[in-house]
Specification:
Blueprint: E1 10-14, H1 32-46, E2 54-58, E3 70-73, E4 79-82, H2 89-104, E5 123-127
Helix pairs in contact: 1-2
């Protein structure tokens, strides 16, 4: 069930997430999570400063009521699960921009003033890194 991936800063995208709250797939039968992951890779090709964060896909983050969910993580840092994104470039850019700032932070805490507008209101849960809890 588990598959090894490279350690480091990453956005884990739920590849099986719904396309939207109303639709499971788009008109071509593609899931929103797969489209969002593809949009992230396209944005990374166009904007190399966002390529330092790996885009990893995983079927089902168990956040099924919150379509297009992602997990932003990096070793030794607080992680975050976000959802309710449109599977498009604008969302992809906002998530990647946040993930780059998250990776550059000391503990995974990005000041609210530095959050891209596209991630505000999308946070679902934060997760402590292994061996730690938040104070």
């Amino acid at each position: 069930m588990l598959r090894a991936v490279a350690s480091g800063a990453a956005v884990v995208v739920c590849s099986t997430c719904r396309h939207s709250a109303e639709a499971r797939e788009d008109a071509s039968g593609r899931r929103g999570g797969a489209l969002l992951a593809a949009a992230m890779r396209t944005v990374q090709q166009e904007e190399p400063e966002l390529a330092g964060v790996a885009v990893q896909e995983m079927p089902c983050l168990f956040s099924c009521t919150r379509h297009c969910s992602v997990h932003v993580r990096a070793p030794g840092k607080v992680g975050y699960v976000l959802g309710d994104f449109a599977p498009d470039r604008e969302s992809a850019r906002a998530i990647l921009t946040y993930a780059v700032r998250h990776a550059a932070s000391e503990e995974g805490v990005v000041r609210y003033a530095e959050w891209p507008d596209g991630v505000k209101g999308h946070f679902i849960v934060r997760t402590p890194p292994e061996g730690f809890v938040c104070t």
